[in-house]
């Protein structure tokens, strides 16, 4: 069994598809415990038994359509009209626009490609240093993970069987903390290169609003609908998908119909990749629960730590390492079922656990060696990867501080519940 | 031979795209109409099958999306090794992990096939009058196709080692 595990770890590091790794470990477990191998197929098919999963293809599609249209430009113009006049204005614009866009497009790396391409040259033109810009844009690419309706939040809700509405509410303040800390750092770093403060123009705000008139109802309907409880998450997703399609393809006509199959394919490729891992993870979770793996883990952890506080410390260290190795989606599906019972044992609220989990995994986008955003930024802005590492490092430190704050201040997450 | 393979590749891609567009389109229309029906029309239309249909479309999208992900080489993996090593070693590593993935998919496909065969004898129905086994048949089918995709890529990779000038453009 140990040899098999080591072999699987080796194959994973060599780049075998993760779903195949997880499926194998589950099936080997089934075989050794006389569980019928058909259980694997049964668990995969149970994807069709989880109503809230419908939100995943719908939001992903909407996000891809938005990022292929000119919505990113309009979003940047509007944010710039609102915040651009402040000191460090454009940096704040970058943070706010990226957070908003990531929440709506599900944190799959498209933010850097869609928004970074506009913001990176604009920051340079505005006189910000190149290192700062690179770090800012790279780390902004996964900001907004904690805001509704981001895919990782939904996925955590599904896997942990926690109310997604609760998670959406819980993410607000921790997400804002991250924004404020990064914003404060951006202003502080640029305190010496003062530029004349831009003028706030109500006319420009009006023009930017008019330009984005068709997209404006989207956050209001979706966020308002979800937070007020008028729509279920999957309903909001369906409306978003249809609305985005109608606006960008039929009204704004920024996406020609012949491009649509490609966009559908690109977005569903991501969905297929995620749901495949979900399916095989369900099987592996079934096996682990059946053989009481969480209880055994709990026994080990209980020997190490005694208080909720020391548990959180251990959890945080574990998650930071995990985030450096695994992407956020796989990590949620694979690890959450294991740590959930342990956290409950130490009295950690499952909603708070979700926020901590996602916040820590967000750092994983930025940690060498495999952080997704680092590669996307290196590729997109044609910079050596080592250069991106070092440019992102100060932002990583700030985000790390915010994650520590979020971890040890549960009320930040739980105040709206 | 090569021409025939390219044709097959294009046909496969077209079939996947068509299936994905039809599935996603149906899903959006049915899901939105359900909301309109309930909120605005006072549930004028009885649509007892709609919830189930939308849920099964998620499964079908997941499976077809997975086939497409395999063709586009977009399945989630830890791809650190390609950033560290280069040259023929990487190609050999890719061959090993893809053979592994193909075998795993064949096993899952076979288990899913066994399950579906059993479901035929259960005689269960979903969405009113659709046999359950038919709704589930996409799973074994998808895994066999994914297995085939991995094998095709292994062949292309092997070919690129022994005939370097042919390149590995699509692998």
List the keywords.
heterodimer; A: 417 residues; mainly alpha; 21 helices; globular; B: 171 residues; two-stranded antiparallel sheet; 6 helices
Structure description:
The complex is a heterodimer of chains A (about 425) and B (about 170). By secondary structure, chain A is mostly helical. Helices cover about 75% and strands about 0% of the residues of chain A. The mean pLDDT of chain A is about 90. A two-stranded antiparallel sheet of chain B has the order 1-2. Chain B has about 170 residues and is mostly helical. In chain B, α1 packs antiparallel against α2 (about 50-70), α2 (about 50-70) runs parallel beside α6 (about 140-160) and α4 (about 90-120) packs antiparallel against α6. Chain B has six helices and two strands; from the N terminus they run ααααββαα. Classes of the chains: A mainly alpha (about 425), B mainly alpha (about 170). At the A-B interface, α1, α2, α3, α4 and α13 of A face α1, α2, α3 and α4 of B.
The count of β-strands of chain A is 0
Counting copies of identical and different chains, the oligomeric state is: heterodimer
- Pair with the most extensive interface? A-B, 65 and 60 residues
Distance between the termini of chain A: 44 Å
What's the quick description here?
The complex is a heterodimer of chains A (417) and B (171). Chain A has 417 residues and is mostly helical.
List the helices and strands and how they pair.
The complex is a heterodimer of chains A (417) and B (171).
Chain A: H1 2-14, H2 18-32, H3 38-45, H4 55-68, H5 71-83, H6 89-105, H7 110-125, H8 130-140, H9 151-160, H10 164-189, H11 202-211, H12 217-228, H13 233-251, H14 260-290, H15 293-304, H16 308-325, H17 328-345, H18 350-364, H19 372-380, H20 385-408, H21 410-414
Chain B: H1 2-39, H2 50-71, H3 81-84, H4 88-122, E1 125-126, E2 130-131, H5 132-136, H6 138-162
Helix pairs in contact in B: 1-2, 2-6, 4-6
